[in-house]
Amino acid sequence: MNCYDVIVIGGGLLGCFAARNLMRYKLKTALLERREDLCTGISRANTAIVYSGYDMKPGTLKAKMCVKAAQEFGTLCAELGVRYSPCGSIMVCFGPRGAQTLRQKYEQGLESGVRGIKLLSPQEVLQLEPNISPQVVLGLYTPDTGTVIPWELGIAAAENALQNGADILLNTEVRDIVPLENGFQINCGSQTFETRGIINCAGLFAAEILEKVSSPKVRIYPSGGDYLILDTKAGGHISHVIFHEPEHKDKGLTLVPTVDGNILIGPSEVPVEEKNFFATTGEGLTALRSLVSEVIPSLPLEHLIRSFGAVRPNPFWVHQDPLSGRYVPEDKGISSFTILESTPRPFLSLIGIKTPGLTCANELGSYVAEKMAALLGNIPSNPDFNPQRPAPLRLNDLSWAERAKIIKRNPLYGQIVCRCRKISEGEIIDSIRRQPGAVTVDGVKRRTGSGTGRCQGSFCTQKIIEILAREHGCSPAEIHKDNKGSYLICKEGGSQC
Amino acid sequence: MLEYEIVVIGGGPAGMAAALSARNSGISRVLLVERAEVLGGILNQCLHAGFGLTYFGEELNGPQYAARFIKRIEQSDLKVLTSTTAVSLQGDGRVILSGSCGLLEIKAQAVILASGCRERPIGSLPVTGTRPAGIFTAGMAQKMVNLGGYNIGSKIIILGSGDVGMIVARRMVLLGKEVIAVIEKEAVCGGLLRNQIQCLEHYGIPLWTRCTISRIHGQERISAVTVQNLEDGREKYIECNTLITSVGLIPEQELAEEAVDGGAIPPWLFLCGNACYVHDLVDDVTSEAEHVGRKAAEFVKTLKQVGKDYKQAGSGMLEGDVQGAHQEQAPEEDPEKADIPQDKTQHIFCIACPKTCKLTPSSQGWEGTICGRKDPVVAVR
User: Fold this and answer.
1) Which residues contact B255 (CB under 8 A, 6 or more apart)?
2) A403: nearest CB among B103, B119, B257
3) What CATH superfamily classification does B2-118+250-339 receive?
4) Tens digits of per-residue pLDDT, B138-153?
5) Helix (H) or strand (E) holding A19
6) Is ipTM > 0.90 here?
7) Fewest CB within a 10 Å sphere: which of A11, A137, A364, B376?
8) How many domains does the structure of chain A reveal?
9) Is it the case that residue A420 has pLDDT exceeding 90?
């Protein structure tokens, strides 16, 4: 039997940060993730923005957390060795309705203490972002908006948790939770765990986890979004995060100059029925293209290298219909950060955390960790907690002289595997050997950026499969793209062949 | 810092030919850099025949064609670095190479970029749906199957009737796999007629023209695609476990872009092969690359004669030649291309079967079909 003080269910961004912050206390902690790697759910399809906090109603938990988190985000990323681009943002609009919204957001920002927020005239907008359509009528600028790679951040937090003593258990899906006198028993098929407290960070499936111990109060309904990614050749086209406030009630456009120098466009808003439905839609992609032609007509969409679909969690309170006995959602969804506390045993659930979940991941983690420590009763803080996570070597961030030294020490850093991003074999091996290391091709991609360039892995995937197989001592046919079942090479004699 | 007169980046057919021709034009210090472990480039994964018909007058497969040049290089005093990637090409002609031996900085008087091309990824197309495992570009599939010896799938759809796509379709059939169809959005096949006949028709692989893939299905591994008829908009759900895409090749010119950095193309920089524009036939790549090798050699010699550094050399003096090497804008209209020595007379072939018989016109029609075909498919080279 594996006994813990706290078990975190779900290895997305929030789960990773909950685990990291639990290590600030003397708590024996494990993080359970059902898939082969971390950050493969909501966190893998995200707009990658650190919000400065003017969108939220002043005074709410969301607004307070967001404003503080954005101002401290650079420090957090420095601690975790994660790349962060504090590029600032400009919200633009093209008519009176949008202008009214911008002024309202400006007031909200002032009230919430968003630093450096200011309204920009069309000339000022065009000075900062000359490619925006000259039809722009007003801009709203904040310097504290930034962009970060969500999975890079989440994986860094998980590594940091692990360095501080947390156990990270992949391929571990929670089947049942049985309340015990002093905690819970969690059954995960072949493994069983006992824990005093649970933090539920199961994202899209958080309500299902909660319902294993209580009657339904809340349900999460998915919605989808489409994104486009442009090659780094288009990267210089914008230098700030651009938000577009549309004149009609539909969703506006967001453009992000990413840390890697690409442009991320999206998301559209499309209905989906399935929670695992990470797919793009024709309507969504068309909507994005038409918005681009309105907001930034010169954007070179011919440099498109990828599109992907995201799923978002939309939480709704539910009540039981007396006639059918079914649980039906209330009319309006929950918009605040919802952290449910089930009694009598410590069970905290983060329910349907949407924007600005990425921005507030560490704040939310710290919030639930503190709460859990209190619920478990006077848990002392951990004096040995080290918030610093040693960053992996990223050759592209180094000078030629530094690179030369590293290659001399380990020649594998001289062998370029991913041509487009210029990622070396040494960096790929490092991503596999780190803990928790990559076991899939996409795991290597999330840790090193390999395969995210203009050829989208057509040159390097085979080599990466071979390196993974070599490092894990298995056959290349056992290496998956991203999860069980996503085989790249057929096993001889297997059913697929 | 090492110094070379000419550095050739890329050891595929273009780079090998350019390096040899530069060396044979009297340049003694030529460096050839290849990122793979061996020379040959994409030729190494092309196990099919059809190479060398115009250049060598005989039919070779990819590795055989490459081997002829590798042999010439081994017999020469060319300096070759394999497993070495050019990671940076700077505006002053410095090349930075990364390899197991370390990071090398090379000063070159002329640089020939022969880095080939890459395949357009599926993400650049308006194809919706999931992004599961089992989607390969044709070149990637060809390499995995022919060089890696991997089994990449058994029920295959091919998107795009480019040459590589059709060649891979045939290869998969020869390996006992089911190729459901090759899907082409245009009304006609995208690749050479020869490949349409030799790869698709001879193996009974259907070509669905005016069709595209509108949606990809499958959560972990691809399970099906929706094929849309572009004429009437009708859609068909087709189960498969592999999708191979052959939807276009893009010259890999990033190093040149780095050196140019928005300014004028420096006179010391030459492009050849598929890095310049995408060629149908490797024989043409070889001939053009030899021409570019000679031009680069002339450039280096001119520098010597004038006794000047290339920076001081009047760029106008050589502009025409340099432009000749830069055919990426409008290769067909470039007058320099016409200057490429047409030392081989044009031949007429029948491409209806793998024998590719050489034909001569006669009063009865065509003569020379050794395979005995009465209905030759004529192609002029």
Assistant:
1) B9, B86, B88, B89, B113, B115
2) B103
3) FAD/NAD(P)-binding domain (3.50.50.60)
4) 999 999 999 999 999 9
5) helix A13-22
6) yes
7) A137
8) 3
9) yes
